[in-house]
Design goal:
Structural class: mainly alpha
Number of helices: 3
Radius of gyration: 28 Å
Number of strands: 0
Distance between the termini: 64 Å
Length: about 110
């Protein structure tokens, strides 16, 4: 039941349910839809509906990705470019030496 509910839920990133995106229709709640063949007119209509839904979902996901990138870039700090010969401060808290104690290691 949980998986069914999840697949039937309208997702915020796509704006559609997974059933609609993957199958082209909302979830089957126990009705028998019958069998169709490749040459039936409903098949062509179904395929165009699926393509339209997937195009819409693709556009929505692209918009979501752009929005998420803007939010990430706003928080991101600029990286420091290091050059050969630059002096840096190294924290030796987790650096192990062969000396018996920290007090006796080279300074």
């Amino acid at each position: 039941m949980i998986e069914f509910s999840y697949n039937n839920w309208i997702h915020s990133s796509t704006g559609q349910s997974l059933f609609l995106v993957n199958l082209g229709c909302h979830s089957n709640m126990g009705q028998d839809i019958g069998k169709t063949t490749d040459d039936s007119p409903g098949t062509k209509e179904f395929l165009t509906t699926i393509k339209e839904i997937r195009n819409e979902v693709e556009k929505t996901l692209k918009k979501t990705n752009v929005m998420m990138k803007k939010k990430w870039d706003a928080k991101k700090k600029l990286e420091i470019e290091w050059k050969k010969g630059d002096l840096v401060w190294v924290d030796a808290a987790h650096y192990n030496t062969n000396q018996p104690s920290k007090k006796l290691s080279a300074k």
